[in-house]
Amino acid sequence: TKLVYMFDEGKRDMKETLGGKGANLAEMTRIGLPVPFGFTISTQACNTYYDSNRKITGELKEQVLSSLKQLEETTGKKLGDPGHPLLVSVRSGAVFSMPGMMDTVLNLGMNDDTVEAMAKLTNNARFAYDSYRRFIQMFSDVVLEVDVYFFEQHLEEVRERKGYTSDPEMTAEDWKEVITGYKNIVKKHTKRTFPEDPKEQLFLAIQSVFDSWNNQRAIIYRRLNKIPGHLGTAVNIQSMVFGNMGDDSGTGVAFTRDPSTGESILYGEYLINAQGEDVVAGIRTPQPIQTLQNDMPDVFQQFIDTCKRLESHYGDMQDIEFTVERGNLFILQTRNGKRTAQAAIRMAVEMEREGIISKTEALLRVDPDQLNQLLHQRIDDSYEFTRLVKGLPASPGAATGHVVFDSDDAEALSQEGKKVILVRPETTPDDIHGIVSAEAIVTSRGGMTSHAAVVARGMGKACICGCDGLKIDLKNKQFRVGDTVVNYLDRITIDGGTGEIMLGDIPMIAPELSEEFQTLLQWADEKRTLGVRTNADTPEDAKKALEFGAGGIGLCRTEHMFMDATRIPIVRDMILAENLDERMAALEKLLPMQQGDFTEIFEAMNGHPVTVRLLDPPLHEFLPDKEELIVDVTKLQITNPSSHELKEKEQLLKKVRQLDEFNPMLGHRGCRLGMVYPEIYMMQAKAIFYAAADLLNKGLVMEPEVMIPLVGHVNELKAMRQVVEEAADQIEQETGKKINYTVGTMIEIPRAALTADEIATEADFFSFGTNDLTQTTFGFSRDDAESKFLQHYIEQNTLPENPFMVLDQEGVGKLVETGVKLGRETKPSLKTGICGEHGGEKSSIEFCFEKGLDYVSCSPYRVPLARLAAAQATI
Ligand code: ADP
Ligand code: MG
Ligand code: MG
């Protein structure tokens, strides 16, 4: 089998065989760019090496030697030849570029003989001995694993002894002295002499590249980036060119466009009279690429032309490494350059306009996941700061403010115009006014679906949850992380995207929807067939989502309207009601409030469809915490046994105990509330229809979609549908307005998906609630799973991903697919969507497209991501 390829035998699409670097070196050779000649040992050879117990096989050895011979013939030089020595670099190169692999070895082939030849040929002994000592140092470090520190120490000692302050003062004789010392260091640390046979050097270096494929750094990097371990790395052997031959030589790197802004300008740096890694090593400060125009005008022009050629050849921004040897330009590497989200968008749009790529390609150039960075205020990374502690990144965005520990403080201070960050062990519906007032929320307990997390995400506010490194002392109004104490009103900064908390103020960058971003999203809209809606419970969210291009609301949750601080007392009256009359009285008070909410949201949506979900959470969520109540009651029994307050609290506690459930997630919630208390759903439905009638009065159209949650059996939906229809009839009669509406259900119980054909007889639409559907399909309660065992599952590869973030296509996805299929058998026109958090995740969006769903619905800040991902799914 062929294991080695000369540079002129390969091309760009051979990455799997030649690695990224090798394939591009071959491609550049093929199109006639000045690339020092060489050959590439394939990734298969690396795998064979491992299959043969880390031995270089005879076959590989033979092929390397014959390729070497070809290289020698082409260059007219020979490895180890004392007259015309060939020197090479040995460079690793995996299929995906991978830091952590072996570092490059330069100047391989040098020894006591060839260094003399180099000195004579270049007429520059100083240069030759400098190169030799660099080689010994690099080879020893990278291949023989002797710490560079020993070499640096020795060099320093010689330099000092000679009274020099910098390397350029060293003469050839001085370097010879250094070389002798270097060889002694190698002998001392490896118990052998430095290998002077160039072929031995070559095979040792090759082996070292193979070995580096499985070093710790590389393994960890692969795991983090999900790169399979069986790919192996290629090895590139390339004849050397020298950027350190004097002032007409140099080396540098450049991007064909600015990788941080995307602007179309050459962006890079170079050093005169330097070799290889000197530019990145930071020993000398490099110069901006533009000044190369003055230093070497001809080379600069040639380089500009080459950059343009490479960029249009690859159709993407290139990251290019080059070296100039005595006025001659050589290209040593090119690859698609890494870039920020902002730059990715600008480049994609501008390249389309320049005719380099098509719109379709432009759409594929931007990773939807990257967009998140752009839609929230974020921390300016160019600033140095230390992190205090880390929790769960529950809701992205960054914020700075004064620390407060209770919601009343948060509200009071924010009314004074102060920015605050609410820090709590956890939050409850009683904290809503605090959450609304705060810039961001931090809790020490609770997971990604805790109250704080859900509410914060809904509001687009930064939030960190479950930060258990943070010890909160509510009594003394302070928190502690290790020895650090943070007091009430101290300033902190949090990054909800990473979960990090920092002391003090950290500079921020505001979110920007650039003109190019808008353009790209417009192109996405032209391409996509999948609808994108948003999950929004407030007019503010609705407006934000419209701004971001949502086509409607796919999930408007009504419980948040119940949690408003001013309504909680009425909601509690409703729950505590001893009989229907009492409950109706409370509901009567709630009705106009809900109606007002709906009117505002419907108006904000300006004719776009809105799906309203009727009450879903168990009622105890609107009541105070049981433990706290017990403490209060006990206290009052001692201090004020005959008080009215005690009576009230005792009654409340009784109700809390009645409502207590063994497993609230599977308890009395969703349509099960509506089944037992139809008057609650009736009130909500009336509020919806009154609001719709209101809009009709104002000449606006709104056709509400009423959604019944947690249906498992068609009879549940049938009963609830009747309630909704009754409400509609009543309001139509009362207002004289004909309201067009639909009734549908959330599919979030496996039974509903499996009997979707029956359910569809009562439903006008299905919305897959994949958060609950994932819980009920796996039988995982999300909070318990995420805090107790899911991480373990993912680390052990039991599950590939967190199924609450990335839709489990084989299991939960199969239920979605079944639901769509069965539902449409009954009702071909059935509208289907997804409203779980998966609606904002790109692979799940692609799945929804493939299974023929009509739309996805996600949080307002994810709408742009979903638009792009929906377009990419169609390509
Ligand atoms: P990395 O993957 O870490 O960038 P490279 O294999 O690209 O490592 O090598 C790093 C640098 O070494 C190159 O940018 C180039 O400056 C220098 N280099 C590599 N091969 C040669 C060569 N044949 N001649 C001159 N310099 C080289
Ligand atoms: Mg490189
Ligand atoms: Mg649900």
UniProtKB/TrEMBL annotation:
Q: Binding of substrate: at which residues?
A: 557, 613, 748, 769-772
Q: Residues that bind Mg(2+), according to the entry? A: 748, 772
Q: Which residues form the PEP-utilising enzyme C-terminal domain?
A: 514-873
Q: Which cofactor does it need?
A: Mg(2+)
Q: Which InterPro entries match?
A: ATP_grasp_subdomain_1, PEP-util_enz_mobile_dom, PEP_util_AS, PEP_util_C, PEP_util_CS, Phosphohistidine_dom_sf, PPDK_AMP/ATP-bd, Pyruvate_phosphate_dikinase
Question: Which residues are catalytic?
Answer: 451, 835
Q: Which GO terms describe its molecular function?
A: ATP binding; kinase activity; metal ion binding; pyruvate, phosphate dikinase activity
Q: Where is the Pyruvate phosphate dikinase AMP/ATP-binding domain?
A: 58-296, 302-353
**Catalyzes what?**
pyruvate + phosphate + ATP = phosphoenolpyruvate + AMP + diphosphate + H(+)
The UniProt keyword set, sorted, is:
ATP-binding, Kinase, Magnesium, Metal-binding, Nucleotide-binding, Pyruvate, Transferase
The top EC class is: transferase
> Pfam family of this protein, just one?
PPDK_N
PEP-utilising enzyme mobile domain mapped to chain residues: 418-499
Do the record's keywords include Endoplasmic reticulum?
Answer: no
* Family to which the UniProt record says this protein belongs: Belongs to the PEP-utilizing enzyme family.
> Known NCBIfam families for this protein?
PRK05878.1 (NF004531), pyru_phos_dikin (TIGR01828)
Identification of the protein by name: Pyruvate, phosphate dikinase
Q: Which organism is it from?
A: Salipaludibacillus keqinensis
